[in-house]
Fold each of these.
Amino acid sequence: MGVGREQPSTTVYYRFEDSSGRLHIVDSLESVPQALRPRAQRVAYTEQPTTLAAQLQHGLSSWQVFALGFAAALLVVVVFKRLPGTMRIVLRMAIVGGVICVLAGGYLGWMRRATGQASDALATPAQIIDDAKSAVAKMNARQEADQAQLKEIEQAK
């Protein structure tokens, strides 16, 4: 069961100045007085989807992820129990640690694939951190652009 991609939504506003020079922003042309409609300016604002559900184009359901995690835990237990008692504990821990690292890398790789960041099977925590930094930089740039647009609207009055 996957989650569909949301489409960006566009909202249209109209800005106009009344006879006293006061700036108004309304959401429909009908809200602009008839005499001021020729001078009303149309402002379109496109909102990009930012939720995780919007970023998930396809992926595993929560039950499938749970089943994979449970199967991985069972695999670790089975491997640990099957090792002969004569092997050193260090070797056991190394094998279990290696399996845990591969499973963690697979999980992080799945997270990056599910959010559309990459198509690699394995990923490292550093890659997840870089993805988060990139997302923050994009969000900051978007907020600055929105602020600049609002400032432009305010200055135009």
Amino acid sequence: MEEESKSIAVLGIGLIGSYLATLLTKSRSNTYLIARSSIKPKLEQNNGLSVTLLSGETLTVIKEDFEIFSTVSELIDTGITPDYLIVCVKRTAAVEVYNSIKCFDGKNTSIVLMMNGVGALAEAKQILPNNEIIPGMVCRSR
């Protein structure tokens, strides 16, 4: 029996979010991107997302390979509740973002925090007490 693919939403399409979104989209289906309203048209205009690795290799995914939303509310309005929500925002925006994703509290969505800074995990657990909160990190192996 084939295991059902988990759905993953990436919130924040900056350096880390773009990297993770590209890798996830290339390796699976059911990847959703949540980007600022100023970023969404750029992704659509550029026909997708490209990242260049330190090795010089460029990874590209076309816009037909993922769905992009401007807000968490927009994602929710489509009826999508991701299995994982990867939060890739600056630490200074953390509380605002946690409050914007309260709609996932208790909905079996695991929250993966991809940010640095003291207190991020404790704040997330306080605002989203009914979700699994996973601290994450990106590292590159040679």
Amino acid sequence: MALAVAVPVAFFVPSLPLALRLLAASALGLAVVRLLRPPLSASTRIAAAAALSGYAMIPILGAALAGVAGVGLWLRRRPHVRSALRRWIVAGLAFGIASGSIVVVMGAEQPTGGFRAHLYAYAWERPLLSNRPVAALVVVLASALNAVGEEWLFRGLILQQLKSEGLPSVLAIALSSLSFGVAHIRSGLPGGPQGFLLTTAFGAVMGIAYVAQSDGRPFIVSAHFAADVVLVGRALVL
């Protein structure tokens, strides 16, 4: 259960001074290595620690590390592409597009006013991302890495860890979803209190799909990817 608390903390640390960020990143990395237990491999624990430390220092770096780790560790056993699997992917894309569109219609995509500034952390990014074709490519790549990385962290690690500790599936889904929602409050998309509610609800659906399906990864990753494309695309390109 401590892991469900430790992970979203990393998303709040970047607002601290550099010295405190370094201290917090080191502490988070050590904590995650200790909190994650077998049967998770040592490489998985190290990758999770590196991703959370990256989030604490530079959020974009953490997202990239989590995405690469998710691809390399969590998605390395690819299921055979069957018609049923294709339907789950299509269903995930449709659900993600609908979810992102609802957030946009509600006007909740940038309630804190800070997400664009969060993306433009460095001056050199502004002219680069002002080029629409480049920005569109960044949207697709960033959405893919973020979707895999966050699903790996919140469903593949936190939810699985809670279940391995003996918690009922309903409680494990609820706690992992709350952890997911809290992580989006400061600079998530959507963010703020309304974003917390929306992302917690989205996380609950992802958690249910992950537990209910024999292999829920195709649905949850495609849904998360599609939602991110809609929201990040609106923030950067539109």
Amino acid sequence: MRYIGKKFLTLIIALLLISIVVFLAFSILPADASIAKLGQNATPERIAALRAEMGLDRPVLVQYWSWLTGAVRGDFGTSYQYTGTGVASLVGGRLGTSAVLSLISLVMVVVISIPVGIFGAKRRSVAGRAAMTTLVHITMGVPSFFLGILITYLFSLILKWFTIGKYVSPAEDLSASISYLVFPAIAISLPKIAMTVKFLVSSIRAELHKDYVRTAYAKGCSRNGVFYGHVLKNSLVPVITFLGIIIAEIVAGSIVVEKVFSVPGIGLLLVTAISNRDYPVVEAVVLLIAVVVIVINFLVDVIYQIIDPRVKL
């Protein structure tokens, strides 16, 4: 419990610091919110009136506290681009799509990387190991957005398996929605699969050289019995922590991929809001992504400590 308490305290501090950075990053911009909303040609009188209406003439600390307390309640203000529309409703309407996309990507990573990692670790052929290592490093080095462009060109423009921009919400057609999201999920997950395979192979090979493995063989245990009963189990423990990092990268990495595939998630919303200087939306999405990443890492640390009680802060 002491370990979890320290981790939770670290979580709260990290969230507080991120909220400060996010707020100040947009507070120090040359073009403040009033200019972004009225435009560069607005008169000084209109700008001053709007600044007073929006509370921008107050001290920065007062503005931050007002924004933070609103954010805790789920109130991020109203959008500049969509006049009168609450930021929370905009983000909430896109959040489900991004969550499903991230979930599909994570399932692909787990389902593919673990069997491939086991297969690669058990390979004894030097040529086979070299080929697999080369393939893994090439896949790791290709950015998700570039994979997205290649997948779009191949499966949309040439094979006509799906049409860019024709995303269907799950409420209308669940199967069509998932079928569309599979393609951006492939672009997101492929580099992560390669990273997980490399990490798992290294973990298994390191475990195979430990003394207890040689002892088990000396006692007459079968190779598969030792591997699946002991080696694989111990090798997967550090992989859990690594998957936490992968989940965070999936959440953050979906931003550009959503733009490539025109998926109406929070990533596309963020890119559009940045282009239109819709600062309340940008602040809300950036803070949301940061919160998700930090909370995921906290949960992974807690799970890791439960699995292996020897872990200390």
